[in-house]
C-alpha cells in the first residue's frame, strides 16, 4: 500500500512502517503506564525540581520523567527490534544506557558540568569509533568527503553540542518534548525511506514514549523529564542525524543530497539558540554557563506568554523549518544554510521585539490612565 504526501512530495510505502507503528504504540502504552508510578516515587522521596533563575516554574515539581520515557522505549525495542544487532547498534545502546544512568544521578545529586561534559565526549568518541560518523558535508562550501580525522572531530562536536542544546532548551512545559517528538518522527520516516530500518525503529519507539510523556508534561506539568530525559533525547537525535548523513553520503541515489543541512533542520532551534545565548554571554564578559533568562523561550515567557502558548509557537516554527529544509533540497547548500540562519535570526528579532513592546506598553499604560482620570 503506497501513498504520496503532497506536502513533502515523497512516496510512502505503509507496509514498511508496520513494525515502526507497533514499536511506537508499544512505547506509548508502556510510558503512559509508567509515568504515574514514577510521580509517586518522586513525591515519596521528594526528588523535585526546585525553582531557580533558569526555571520557569514557581513550585517544586516531580522530575525524573526520563525514566518513564526510557522504560517505554526499552520495552518496545526488546519486543520488536531485530535480533541481528550490529556493532554500531550495540555501541549506541551502551552509550545511551551510560548517559541515562548519568542523567538519573545528575537529577538526584546535581553533578558538575565538567564531569558531565567529559562523559559526553567519551560517549561521542565511542560512537564515532563504532563507525557512526559524519563522513560528508554534502557539497557545503565545496566539501564532500571528509578526512577520517575530520570525521571524528565533527562527529564528537555535533553529538556533544546537540545533546547539551536539547538539555538547555528544556525550559518550559512541553517544549523539549514537542521539538524532540517532531524531529524523531521525521528522522524515523526518512531513515525508513533510506533503508535504515533498525535506526528508524529506535526513532519511532522513542517518539512514542515522548508523546506519552507530553500528556503529563503539558502546562501545568505534572512531571519534568529532567536531565535523565533531555540528555538522552538530545544524544539519540544527534546519533540519528549523524546516521542519516552517513547513509545518504554512500547511497547510489541518495534521498537527501543535502543531508547535513536536513539534519541541521532537525536540531536548528536548540542549536542556534544555544550558540546565540553563549555568544551573548561571552560578548558581555560573562561565563557562557552563567544562568540567565535569555533563551528563546524566555523571550516569550518574559513578555507574558504562557508556557503552553510558548511551546506551541516554537513547535509550529520548528515544523515550518522541517518542511522548508526538505522543500529547499534542490538549491545550493550554501543558500539553504543562509535561509536557515536568516529564519532563526528573524524569529529571534520578532520574539525580542514582542518582549520590548509589551514592556513599553506596561510602562506607558499607567500614565495614560492617570491623564484620563
C-alpha end-to-end distance: 70 Å
Reported for the largest beta sheet, the result is: 2 strands, antiparallel
Poorly predicted spans? 367-373
For the biggest β-sheet, the strand order reads 1-2
Total beta strands: 4
Mean pLDDT: 89
Number of domains: 1
Radius of gyration: 21 Å
Helix segment count?
Answer: 12
Fold topology:
Blueprint: E1 2-5, E2 10-13, H1 18-45, E3 48-49, E4 61-62, H2 66-80, H3 87-109, H4 113-130, H5 148-169, H6 175-193, H7 197-217, H8 226-250, H9 259-283, H10 296-301, H11 307-327, H12 333-372
Antiparallel strand pairs: 1-2, 3-4
Helix pairs in contact: 1-2, 1-7, 2-7, 2-8, 3-4, 3-8, 4-5, 5-8, 5-9, 6-7, 6-8, 6-11, 7-8, 8-9, 9-11, 9-12
Report on the structure:
The chain has a two-stranded antiparallel sheet. The protein has a two-stranded antiparallel ribbon with strand order 3-4. Helix content is 71%, strand content 3%. The chain has helices at residues 18-45, 66-80, 87-109, 113-130, 148-169, 175-193, 197-217, 226-250, 259-283, 296-301, 307-327, 333-372, and strands at residues 2-5, 10-13, 48-49, 61-62. It is globular. The protein has one domain (2-372). It contains twelve helices and four strands. Strand 1 and strand 2 (10-13) form a beta hairpin. It is mostly helical and 373 residues long.
Overview features:
single chain; 373 residues; two-stranded antiparallel ribbon; globular
Quick gist of this model?
By secondary structure, the chain is mainly alpha-helical. The chain has 12 helices and 4 strands.
Amino acid at each position: 500500500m503506497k501513498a504520496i504526501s503532497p506536502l513533502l512530495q515523497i512516496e510512502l510505502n505503509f507496509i514498511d512502517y508496520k513494525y515502526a507503528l507497533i514499536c511506537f504504540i508499544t512505547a506509548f502504552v508502556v510510558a503512559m503506564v509508567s509515568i504515574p508510578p514514577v510521580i509517586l516515587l518522586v513525591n515519596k522521596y521528594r526528588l523535585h525540581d526546585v525553582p531557580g533563575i533558569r526555571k520557569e516554574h514557581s513550585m517544586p515539581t516531580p522530575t525524573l520523567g526520563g525514566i518513564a520515557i526510557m522504560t517505554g522505549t526499552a520495552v518496545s525495542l526488546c519486543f520488536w527490534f531485530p535480533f541481528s544487532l550490529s556493532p554500531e547498534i550495540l555501541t549506541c545502546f551502551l552509550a545511551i544506557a551510560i548517559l541515562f544512568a548519568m542523567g538519573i544521578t545528575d537529577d538526584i545529586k546535581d553533578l558538575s558540568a565538567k564531569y558531565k561534559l567529559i562523559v559526553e565526549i567519551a560517549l561521542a568518541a565511542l560512537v564515532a569509533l563504532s563507525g557512526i560518523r559524519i563522513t560528508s558535508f554534502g557539497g557545503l562550501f565545496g566539501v564532500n568527503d571528509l578526512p577520517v580525522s575530520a570525521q571524528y572531530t565533527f562527529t564528537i562536536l555535533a553529538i556533544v553540542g546537540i545533546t547539551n542544546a536539547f538539555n538547555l532548551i528544556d525550559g518550559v512545559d512541553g517544549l523539549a518534548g514537542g521539538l524532540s517528538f517532531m524531529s524523531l518522527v521525521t528522522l524515523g520516516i526518512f531513515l525508513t525511506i533510506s533503508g535504515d530500518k533498525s535506526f528508524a525503529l529506535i526513532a519511532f519507539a522513542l517518539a512514542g514514549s515522548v508523546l506519552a510523556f507530553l500528556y503529563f508534561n503539558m502546562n501545568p506539568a505534572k512531571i519534568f523529564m529532567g536531565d535523565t530525559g533531555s540528555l538522552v533525547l538530545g544524544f539519540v537525535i544527534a546519533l540519528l542525524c549523524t546516521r542519516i548523513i552517513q547513509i545518504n553520503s554512500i547511497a547510489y541515489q541518495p534521498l537527501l543530497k543535502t543531508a547535513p543541512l536536513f539534519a541541521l533542520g532537525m536540531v536548528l532551534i536548540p542549536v542556534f539558540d544555544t550558540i546565540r545565548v553563549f555568544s551573548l554571554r561571552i560578548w558581555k564578559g560573562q561565563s557562557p554557563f552563567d544562568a540567565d533568562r535569555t533563551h528563546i523561550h524566555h523571550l516569550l515567557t518574559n513578555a507574558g506568554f504562557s508556557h503552553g502558548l510558548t511551546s506551541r509557537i516554537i513547535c509550529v516554527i520548528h515544523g515550518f523549518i522541517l518542511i522548508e529544509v526538505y522543500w529547499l533540497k534542490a538549491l545550493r547548500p550554501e543558500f539553504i544554510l543562509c535561509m536557515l540562519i536568516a529564519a532563526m535570526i528573524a524569529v529571534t528579532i520578532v520574539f525580542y521585539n514582542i518582549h520590548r513592546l509589551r514592556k513599553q506598553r506596561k510602562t506607558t499604560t499607567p500614565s495614560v490612565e492617570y491623564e484620563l482620570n
